[in-house]
Design goal:
By secondary structure, the protein is α+β, with helices and mostly antiparallel strands. Helix content is 17%, strand content 46%. It has a 16-stranded antiparallel β-barrel. The radius of gyration is 22 Å and the shape is globular. The two termini are 35 Å apart.
Length: 458
């Protein structure tokens, strides 16, 4: 059985204990922010989710408030806004899989947003720079499954992560970015994805990583991106990212900026629509215009990818030029009139990579729900459900059968968890997963996974 190093056990125990013994009550928060809907990164999911007033015991929140005020003062005086994100996951599979084990993993991101207008007078320009560190055990190695059960698992290393310039133009309708970034931060994500513990969907569909040089987690590469918003609720975006065999190789700890022979590109395309349904008139503005209160916000995305990189075929040989498509959406379908924080959202999507001789998992489907305010007095807590399924291509299955393995067909995951939002910065999340047909092989027992995730974001 896998045992945890003492420092990992201490880290997990301290964070979990702080979460479990902290009483808290919450005020109202009205819907999702534009940044949360557009980008859906994990840190933004948590940070903007908790962007509301709070009434808590002063002794518990004193340290958090001090840090937040210090950050606010630094930003006000210097134009530099530091941030810190910790994601720690402790999981165990008491039954099923290749073997039974336990695993702790974490991901830490430390960085800063630099407002260049404040610092040097460059209007509309910012720099995002960050360092990331990951450590822990991948429990999926013991289970033998495809969808990694812990979203916080990355390689044990420390790396330079983001380092990119953003320029906003034309009243912020045009967004240009260039530097070191990951495709997963900018494309193929929803706010709901960042809430799951299973890495098959947090924060992007797993098939994109299997079938293309798509990258996220703590991996960044040379890239450029453009995003245009012709209206408040519609956007189109495109990005170009370096595709290289060094992607995910951390020998240079994120400091290898080189472009070498044999490298290629990954191009991403996406169009999004952010409607608000059921809006009602709530009064008039100071300009005597009718003001409508948004009630049921949503986000819908259509996108695709293309890469000129060279890929190995399962039948032998190599080909270039891979492509695929995705569609996804999230919609709040019910909201209490008297208690806006009591609401229900649904989400779903699919990814298609039709080149089955190079795509091991040509189709992935996903769906889930988010019920906020289910328990009285816990207005910011969220009960989550999630279903993931992915098939394995015939060509991949044939190559596996030729190697003497049982033919893989599909893998599916059922997940449910409950996010206990303790304050603006801290949450704890009990989680249960059930892995069906691990890695598609019928001879690996279905696995039950239970555990806990703690998230700390400033």
């Amino acid at each position: 059985m896998q045992t945890l190093p003492r420092w990992q056990l201490i880290s997990a125990t301290v964070v979990t204990a702080a979460c479990l013994f902290s009483p808290v009550a919450w005020a109202n928060q009205d819907g999702l922010t534009d940044d949360q809907l557009e980008y859906g990164t994990r840190s933004k999911d948590r940070r903007f989710l908790a962007d509301f007033a709070e009434v808590v015991r002063e002794d518990f929140n004193a340290a958090f408030g001090l840090v937040a005020r210090s950050r606010s003062e630094i930003q006000k005086e210097t134009g530099i806004r530091p941030y810190f994100d910790y994601y720690g996951v402790f999981l165990a599979n008491p039954t099923g899989g290749l073997s039974q084990s336990v695993g702790y993993s974490h991901e830490i991101v430390v960085g800063a947003h630099l407002d260049l207008e404040k610092i040097v007078g460059w209007h509309g320009a910012t720099i995002n720079a960050s360092f990331a560190e990951g450590a822990g055990h991948n429990l999926s190695e013991d289970i033998g499954n495809y969808f990694v059960v812990s979203e916080s698992y990355v390689q044990d290393t420390g790396v330079l992560f983001n380092l990119y310039l953003t320029q906003k133009l034309f009243d912020e309708s045009l967004d240009l970015r260039i530097g070191r970034m990951s495709a997963g931060q900018m494309f193929a994500t929803l706010p709901a994805f960042g809430l799951q513990v299973n890495g098959g969907i947090n924060g992007n569909p797993n098939n994109l990583f299997s079938n293309a040089p798509f990258h996220a987690g703590i991996t960044a590469t040379n890239a450029a991106m453009i995003k245009y918003k012709p209206t408040k609720n519609v956007y189109v975006s495109s990005g170009i990212f370096q595709a290289t065999p060094r992607l995910g190789v951390y020998a240079y700890h994120g400091a290898d900026f080189s472009i070498r022979q044999g490298d290629g590109i990954l191009m991403m395309f996406e169009a999004g629509w952010k409607p608000t349904f059921g809006a009602v008139e709530s009064g008039y503005s100071k300009d005597k215009e009718v003001v409508k209160s948004p009630t049921l916000p949503g986000i819908y995305k259509l996108g695709g990818y293309y890469s000129n990189y060279t890929f190995d075929q399962f039948s032998g040989g190599q080909i270039a030029n891979a492509y695929g498509f995705y569609a996804m959406g999230q919609q709040m379908v019910w909201r209490s009139h008297d208690e806006p924080n009591h609401n229900l959202s649904v989400w779903g999507g699919a990814v298609l990579s039709p080149q089955t001789d190079i795509a091991s998992n040509p189709f992935m489907g996903m769906a889930g729900t988010i019920w906020q305010g289910l328990i009285p007095g816990r207005d910011q807590d969220q009960w989550l459900t999630c279903f993931l399924i992915s098939n394995f291509s015939t060509e991949f299955a044939d190559s596996s059968r030729n190697s003497g393995s049982t033919t893989p067909t599909y893998e599916a995951v059922l997940e449910t968890s409950y996010v206990i939002q303790l304050n603006k910065y801290l949450s704890v999340q009990p989680d249960i997963q059930y892995v069906i047909r691990p890695s598609g092989y019928g001879n690996i027992p279905n696995a039950l996974v239970i555990g806990l995730q703690a998230v700390l974001s400033f």
